[in-house]
Amino acid sequence: MLRDITLGQYYQAESVIHRLDPRVKLAATMLFIISLFVFHGATGYLVAAAFLAVVIKLSKVPFRYMVKGMKAILFLLLITVVFNLFLTPGDPLFSIWKLTITKQGVRTAVFLAIRLSFLIIGSSIMTLTTTPNQLTDGLERMLKPLNRVKVPVHEIAMMMSIALRFIPILMEETDKIMKAQIARGADFESGNLIKKAKSLVPLLVPLFISAFRRANDLAMAMEARCYRGGEHRTKMKPLHYHKRDVVAYFCIAAYLVIGVLAERLAGMVFVL
Predict the structure, then answer these.
(1) Residue 194 pLDDT more than 60?
(2) In whole angstroms, what is the distance from residue 28 CA to residue 22 CA?
(3) 3-state secondary structure string, the chain?
């Protein structure tokens, strides 16, 4: 399960998505996520699905590799769907014991599941096609206007990049510790909820120690290399927009316009 988490990992490939400026991918990801909350009908989500399918095809990242990251949130997704299914008021369809499933609950649960799935996959495309260094540079350039109000933009971008990069590292470390504890006779599966929580103590303690050790090693390495962030720091690979980046901006804008128009047209046809 821990190996299935793809958030924060980078997939090496030669594709047009990999070659895009990180600022384009960050802006496109944010706009795509916003669009998922703006769309409220099946037509909008169909447009989002088509757009997502095209981007995945262009990225040359195997779809199976992206879907693998969904396994980590499957339990959370299931709980969210069940709660919306049974607790949303509306026109009742049928009842199970004291719980009633409504027409509005089914609609909300289905759309919420699609929304969360698209959100995770869309965010994974950005991290899978963008290195941590590119992500840091892109965040810093996008937030650069905040420097005028004394916001430490470089430090914020660096912390976000390091935190994102540490996700797969800590997941791998957790997997190793868990296997070592199982080999020593630890049981993480059987028992009630309280017993399972207690069984995680031998896992969490070495994990926290490992995380602090890695953070300390990283800080010492940065200090030994005389790392200084902020102004007057040069870039080995400065960011510059190319023609493909402008085309990508037009594509994401066209996606938003088509999605909104498709939903409005679908609503007008439904009314008629």
Answers:
(1) yes
(2) 10
(3) CHHHCCCCCCCCCCCHHHHCCHHHHHHHHHHHHHHHHHCCCHHHHHHHHHHHHHHHHHHCCCHHHHHHHHHHHHHHHHHHHHHHHHHCCCCEEEEECCEEEEHHHHHHHHHHHHHHHHHHHHHHHHHHCCCHHHHHHHHHHHCHHHHHHCCCHHHHHHHHHHHHHHHHHHHHHHHHHHHHHHHCCCCCCCCCHHHHHHHCHHHHHHHHHHHHHHHHHHHHHHHHCCCCCCCCCCCCCCCCCCHHHHHHHHHHHHHHHHHHHHHHHHHHHHHC
Question: pLDDT of 68-100, one tens digit each?
Answer: 767 767 777 888 888 887 777 777 777 777 777
pLDDT band (50, 70, 90) for residue 249: very high
Q: Who contacts 88 (Cβ-Cβ below 8 Å, separation ≥6)?
A: 102, 104, 105, 108, 109
For 94-136, write each residue's pLDDT tens digit. 777 777 788 788 888 888 888 888 888 888 888 889 887 788 8
> How far out from the chain centre does Cα 202 lie?
29
Token pair for residue 245? 């980046």
